[in-house]
Amino acid sequence: MRIGGKSVAVMSGLAAVLLVAGSAVAAETDNLYSPEACKHPSSSKFKLHLRYERGQNGVWRNIGYRVYNFNDVPDGVVGATSALRFCPQGASNPWPGSNKKVKNNAASGENDHYKYKARVYYHTGYRGAQDVMNPYQHIDSFRNVYKNNASFKWSR
Predict the structure, then answer these.
(1) Per residue in 12-47, pLDDT tens?
(2) From CA 13, how far away is CA 2, in angstroms rounded?
(3) Count of C-beta atoms within a 10 Å radius of residue 69
(4) If I label 65, which of 51, 84, 91, 126 is the partner at 20 to 30 A Cα–Cα?
(5) Are the C-beta atoms of residues 150 and 50 closer than 8 Å to each other?
């Protein structure tokens, strides 16, 4: 079988697109299932830390990659999604917010990234009012998205 130069170029391009798309889904899946998501924020490799309560208190969720919709994160199965939830804390006496959905429940946050700003948005799809945290900045009480937050992304 002989494959022409154009066919090889098209197949190579398609493979590159699939590789990039696959890595984006893998990153989003990491937001759900990576052990980094629920490690204590001071020891997690994920650099955004959202908290259920003001003042960087209460339960948390660490996020490493952008999230288009906190309630609808691809979970690695085609067409299946799951909601991001705050990490369960306090086995016999759960802390307030333990295992609750992150969407519309985060009160404060911290950006531990050395280079990128963290933007937490009011609406899904990175739209609407937002609170922006510069590198190594925290916000003790979100001003624009307090308990009304739906998406997140990194920016310069």
Answers:
(1) 443 333 333 344 556 778 999 999 999 999 999 999
(2) 19
(3) 17
(4) 91
(5) no
